[in-house]
Predict the 3D structure of the following.
Amino acid sequence: MRDPVRVTDQTSRTDEAPSASAPAPAAEGPYEVTPGVYKRLTTGLGGYAMAMLACLLMVGVVVLLTPRDETETLPTVDYGGHLLALRDDAPYTPYAPESLPAGWRVTSSRLTGLGERDEPVAWHLGMLTSSEEYAALEQSNERPVSEYLWRMTNSREPVGVQQVAGQTWQRYYRRDKDQRSLVRTLPDVTLVVTGTASYEELGVLAASLRPQPRDASPSASPGTPGATLRNTPSGD
């Protein structure tokens, strides 16, 4: 007959034995890694940030050291179409510059009022002189003349006269704008040459003006001083 105590003792030891399938406890402690893994772990985000900062610094240095031309260059425009329309349909004989000196160039042309009933017809022709100063030809049949002159010259009273090619032009001056103007009033149109150019350069522009009658081919510079604008029959 078996001893019950011994059987119970063996059973207890069997229950207390560790299971072969239970996971082994994780090791503690420092871990050994390869030098490559260590470098990636320690220089990831910080190294990336330092590289980006270095690139930005290099770009900034290049931008600062690169020479830049900040001078704005205005385009040269062809005003031939406006002149032809004005010559054919304006209620007055228009004037246009001919044979301006080298270095002058037209930078803007604006025609208003043409074909509009009871509206004055005005032509603006802006240009740069050979000294890079601004000069403009303004002409219109607007009435009253005094209001037109006020808008074009920014001045109410003339400050003197100037002889240009045998004709008398009135001088106007607006000090705070450094604006000089020469004015000639004809029966059907008022001519104004104005800008920051000197009176001598404005006189050159005034002296170059020639009437452009409806029944004659206009000879004027469509943007290039000294050039001639001609009418060419279709088909030629």
Q: What stands out?
A: Residues 7-14, 220-236 have pLDDT under 50 and may be disordered. The helical segments are 4-16, 35-65, 80-89, 145-153, 199-208. The first helix runs from residue 4 to 16.
